[in-house]
Design brief:
Elements lengths: L1 E7 L2 E7 L4 E5 L7 H4 L1 E4 L2 H7 L15 E9 L5 E9 H16 L17 H6 L25 E3 L7 E4 L5 E4 L22 H8 L3 E2 L6 E3 L2 E3 L2
Antiparallel strand pairs: 1-2, 2-3, 4-5, 5-6, 7-12, 8-9, 8-11, 10-12
Helix pairs in contact: 3-5
The structure holds zinc ion.
The site of zinc ion (ZN) has 5 residues, from β7.
């Protein structure tokens, strides 16, 4: 566990990092100056080491220089402010900073935002833990096509509650992550559900992203991408 203390203007905050969660404790207002804590930077050596052989595989065709390391604040499911990190393509870095600032201001609950490398770049494991993530050099599940996540131009939000639902020829459905089946019936009302009335949908739409929940072949309710 490591603790970093920040003293900026009148706000004093501490960020506590554990293996799978980062909590931010404020001694003044819970509402922090958003521009200070929402940053996009080139991929540092330290971050690249975490990614190599995981999300950034040996055959990755996306130059490291086109990717950005983003830090954001967000509210967790426990209502506390947390620090999150993402890797995305430089083309959507400003979009993500603005969207996550708006989500933060609205106290929108996102359980965790960690690099998928913390899950060995295993998408199913990341989704099982309801981890919000972006860049991962991989194919679309069950296909040979490279996913938009490979370019860092797609993001999955609260994936456990917003699973990917595929109808199979035999009439049954395949759900990813598997434990997200309870949330595959979108006519039901439940917490953390992304639909057309949800702020996440509205913000990504405003920034020119396509929502996987609007696709016809399969429904990927966690997924937003920008071409
Ligand atoms: Zn996705």
């Amino acid at each position: 566990m490591k603790t970093i203390l920040f003293a900026l203007s009148l706000s004093f905050i501490s960020i506590t990092t554990t293996a799978h969660q980062t909590n931010v404790n404020t001694t003044t207002s819970q509402h922090l100056n958003t521009s200070t804590y929402f940053t996009a930077e080139p991929i540092s050596e330290a971050v690249f080491k975490r990614m190599q052989g995981k999300s950034y595989k040996a055959n990755c065709t996306i130059p490291r220089t086109e990717l950005r390391y983003i830090r954001v604040l967000h509210y967790g499911f426990d209502g506390k402010v947390k620090s999150g990190e993402l890797v995305c393509h430089q083309d959507i870095a400003d979009d993500l900073i603005e969207i996550f600032q708006e989500l933060y201001k609205a106290h929108y609950p996102i359980e965790r935002i960690q690099l998928i490398d913390d899950y060995n770049a295993d998408d199913e494991q990341s989704m099982l833990h309801n981890n919000t993530s972006c860049f991962n050099y991989r194919r679309v599940s069950g296909s040979k096509t490279l996913s938009y996540h490979s370019q860092g131009k797609a993001i999955d939000i609260n994936p456990l509650y917003n699973p990917c639902v595929k109808r199979l020829r035999n009439g049954s459905t395949s759900v990813s992550p598997k434990t997200g089946r309870a949330y595959s019936n979108r006519s039901k009302t439940f917490k953390y559900k992304i639909d057309h009335n949800d702020l996440v949908y509205k913000l990504f739409k405003k920034h020119g992203f396509t929502w996987g929940g609007d696709w016809k072949s399969l429904k990927d309710y966690q997924h937003f991408e920008k071409k």
